[in-house]
Amino acid sequence: MTFARVMIFSLFTLLAFTGFANLVPQVQGDPPVEEKIDVGSIDMAGMVLLGEKLFSGKGTCTLCHNDMGRAPDLLGIDLAKEFPERIADKSYEGIAKGKTGPKAIEEYIMESLVDPSKYVVPGYGKKGSNDKISPMPKADTAPIELSKVEMNAVTAFLQDKAGISPTVPLPSADEAPKATGNDEDEENEPATTGVAAITKYGCATCHDLEGSEADIGPKLNGLAKRMTDAKILEAIVKPNVVIAKGFEADMMPDDFGEQMRFSELNLIVEYLKKLPE
Ligand code: HEC
Ligand code: HEC
Hints:
Blueprint: H1 2-23, H2 44-56, H3 79-88, H4 102-114, H5 148-161, H6 176-179, H7 182-188, H8 194-200, H9 223-226, H10 229-237, H11 256-259, H12 262-273
Helix pairs in contact: 1-10, 2-5, 4-5, 8-12, 10-12
The protein binds heme C (2 copies).
Residues 63-64, 201-203, 205-207, 216-218, 220, 232, 235-236, 239, 243-244, 247, 251-253, 256, 268 line the site of one heme C.
């Protein structure tokens, strides 16, 4: 009995490790440490840089805004043309309505961040909402939770991308220290708990985790009952191998394997297995 258990355990461990090794050869090394930005003495060029970093980092914007078609490809489309067109759209009723120029673009972007459903880019609304409800989570609340300064930075970055000089305010002296807070450091540090790893990689922007109620991806409760560890792992690092019923391929980012450390992947699998049914 005990022997059989040991055998099964070793076999499982062996399989798990060969599985890991085959699936994620890239995650063994630590990703390069990113350059830090000192928000304390930041000018507009610094804001643009910070915004660019937030866009693909803490903001998790690139999880959806990429060339996979689940949201406008903000880094690929001609923003100089698109932003003014959105504001001029007949069905646009937001704060920048009827306005033109750089400040109007700032208002439009900021509104997109804090109130995404105010205007839904045609064709991108939640299924069945007739383009009335945006699938984008608010950027100023969990799980994205950017500070005001950080949203200004992202806005500056997008204005810059649209070929205009950013019009956002620079952080005041007392705002600045907050923006340099631990988040920046934490981003480069390996997550040490399942919740931290889930937060770091933005899983809750699409899955209903930690109370986010997001529904772009399926509910992950009860995974342990229907999937082996190896299958859960595969679903994370190679999401397009098996597509969850009722969902489409190419929705879940397929580069988590490159970004995550081995330890983080493990923590996430353990976290998911323990979710209540
Ligand atoms: C979970 C997916 C998702 C995430 C994460 C996300 N967005 Fe979006 N976003 C969308 C979708 C879908 C749309 C189009 C529907 C709409 O207009 O709300 C959109 C629209 C926008 C628009 C208006 C685009 C346009 O072409 O007019 C802006 C600006 C924007 N997002 C910025 C951001 C920024 C900045 C972040 C990160 C802080 C972010 N989004 C994170 C899904 C997402
Ligand atoms: C941009 C949205 C998005 C993000 C971010 C995202 N997912 Fe997903 N996920 C999906 C979608 C859509 C599916 C269903 C399609 C598929 O199976 O690939 C899915 C499927 C899954 C599945 C398979 C579920 C099943 O029932 O088969 C797992 C497990 C999973 N995701 C875990 C994660 C984890 C862990 C993270 C964070 C590291 C994450 N996802 C981030 C959208 C996302």
